[in-house]
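Entry:
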Amino acid sequence: MAAEPTKPIAEPTVSRLDEPVRLAATGLGPGAEAVLRVHTTDGECRAWESWARFRADAQGGVDATVMAPLEGTYEGVDPAGLLWSMRPVEPPQEAFFARRKPIPLRMSLVVESDGTEPAETQFERTFTDPDVEERTVSYHSGLSGTVYSRRGAAPGVIVVGGSDGGQQDHAAALLAARGYTVLSLGYFGVEDRPAHLHRIDLGYFLKAITWLIEQPDVTGERVAVVGLSRGGELALQLGSMDERVAAVVAGAPSSVRQCGLTTNYTDYTQPAWQLDGEALPFVPGKMTASSFFGFMRGWLLRRPIAQRPIFERALRDSAVMDSAAIEVERIAGPVLLLSGTDDRLWPSERYGELVMDRLARHDHPYTSKHRVYPGAGHFVAFPYALPSLPPSLRLSPAARMVLDFGGAPAPGAAAAEQSWQEINAFLAAAL
């Protein structure tokens, strides 16, 4: 009888990012070693790959769902290990997995074993479900954004991005698949909006809240706001200003209003936020001699640059910190804070503690939580860290420069998965 051919298995062939997929192979010799590889390309056409070597069982099969690899890009039994442990195939290795639109990721599973030809199968990972509809916000609304929703009405959520600008459409679509009408709102770095995070009018967001509540596919008179980093700062600020914000999810947030970011990120004395033409108090940045030489040393030696010390120095100026503190006690609903212990952009864990302390001092009547994930970095959670995608740790924006956002792959992947479940449970209770 002819030997059974090697057969790679990806079941189901189409699945959502937050759903399990079984990656396995049959037709190997009992006890044979085989390598499973996963390939895909991101939104910048960059190739990514992971691999793991397994020993086949007595039936000649390997199954990444229940087996630990002998070696590979991840360790231990992890059904999603071959997904989140993908790395860029070509330099630079310090890159983020690029995807902003909810376009399915086409992936390949390749099985390699001595004495046999490599076998390959295809599968897809989607950001949403087929019944989630997408519509662009009307130009006449004065807003820039995209709405994702199922047929019928559901609670409303606004998702905002951070200091990179643009829109987090892929994340908004994923959240909509869990039963929400989600507005992915662009507020800078998109057409018809400012180019930089500088003097952004907060009235724009109040208008967005009004607009979303008025949509026929939104239930109730209140919405949630979700953001990470500067988006987390913004979510807290909006909640403190408008009682129509029923809940706030702030990942790696700041407890204070930070400075604006202008052309080339060289002037840290300008505000990020204003209302009715007046700048809100903020913490101005300052490039000290030690900061400058630290950046230069990192650039010359191509060492990862952590910006956290700059923000930690600012924490020592209590007068400025008090003036710029976000009045989170005014938020008319619960707050969920998410941070990692290894955030090297800024001290988000400490900022989260300051938010919780302020809520407690003012007897905030809602149940708020601060979840801290060991070993995770700045991009700890949705809408930037999504389940089963490679975590964002370091970025090389220019030759010889590497920005360090902290964390390691395995803790980052675990934080993305666990925080996603935490966010969904929180929103379900709040809305």
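The longest strand covers residues 218-228.
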